[in-house]
């Protein structure tokens, strides 16, 4: 069918998601937050994924950047 039905369905789904409020398990949340250390796995993996300008191969970059 046309765009009208598709838009109506998307609007319905968006409205359901907007007003959906699942029950929150506060004990599990508190346990998860209190058991984490400052150097968790996610932070370490993000830190190792960061690259520096030193990793670029020679000749890579914009013209005029050679003096940096």
Automatic annotation (TrEMBL):
It comes from the Bacteria. Residues 30-68 are annotated as: Disordered. Residues 30-47 have a biased composition (Basic and acidic residues). InterPro entries: DUF3073 (IPR021426). Pfam families: DUF3073. This is DUF3073 domain-containing protein. It comes from Cellulomonas avistercoris. The lineage of its organism: Bacteria, Bacillati, Actinomycetota, Actinomycetes, Micrococcales.
């Amino acid at each position: 069918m046309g765009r009208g039905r598709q838009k109506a369905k998307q609007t319905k789904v968006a409205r359901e998601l907007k007003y959906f409020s699942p029950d929150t398990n506060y004990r599990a949340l508190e346990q998860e937050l209190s058991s984490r250390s400052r150097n968790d796995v996610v932070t370490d993996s993000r830190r190792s994924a960061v690259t520096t300008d030193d990793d670029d191969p020679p000749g890579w970059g914009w013209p005029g950047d050679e003096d940096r």
